[in-house]
Amino acid sequence: MPPMRFHRCLILLFIAVYLLMLFGGAALKPGYSPLSQYISELGASGSAHARLISLFGFIPVGILAALLLCVFAGKVPVRGASRFGYWLLMFEPLAWIGSALAPCDLGCPTSGSVSQSLHTLLGVFTYLGTALGLLLLATTPAIRPGTRLLWIALAGLWLLLFVLMGIEPLQPWRGLLQRLAEWSVYGTLCISAWRLATPVPVAHTAVTRASG
Asked: Could you give the CA distance from residue 49 to residue 26 in angstroms, rounded to a whole number?
């Protein structure tokens, strides 16, 4: 299989596994509400099918996300601070795998068992680390001003939704807020990766080389 086709197949596989975990897990969980409950609650300790969802949902999503970051590391035009920011995105796959190894308690409170405390700590590091990673990606030298602003806006949206999730009056919508945060960041990253994996037309390449 040509490398670019492999890269695109990997992106599609990640999306498929993520959606299967998200909607399949919710279908398995009695009484689960994707609007008011965190994704972590699909694997909450003591809940129905928690181990099944963690082993065949959270962990595969984390492994595929880490694999995508590793595979595209040589293709992204980053260096210096922006390359460090790129690798900070590894917090996301670590969070998925960590959610399986240190599941939250029922209801996903901010404090509770040792597993819940580890889960909460990992979540805070993940949101802050991802936000910093997105901001550092905005320092990439070889991107357009509009793309630079996109990464900055994405980091701001990510942090804003994270804060809103913790506000008491918005608790009935915290699941939706979390999904909006993930879909905005994951969607942008997948689109960016897809563009990197799209072959450049031969004519365009020839013009670029001639002009250089």
From this structure: 10
Q: What tokens does 18 get?
A: 């993520």
Please give the single-letter amino acid code of residue 37.
Q
Tell me the per-residue pLDDT of 8-50, one tens digit each, with 9 for 90 and over: 999 999 999 999 999 999 999 989 999 999 999 999 999 999 9
Query: Residue 186: which of 54, 24, 21, 45 has the closest Cα?
Result: 21
Q: What is the DSSP letter of 55?
A: I
User: What is the CA 142 to chain-centroid distance, rounded?
Assistant: 23
Q: How far apart are CA 174 and CA 178, in angstroms?
A: 6
| CA–CA dist 49, 147 (Å, integer) | 41
Report CA 47 to chain centroid distance, whole Å: 24
Q: Give whole-number Cα distances, 109 to 54, 89, 176, 209, in Å.
A: 19, 25, 17, 57
For residue 146 the two structure tokens come to 């509009």
Task: Decide if 178 contacts 165 (C-beta within 8 A).
Answer: yes
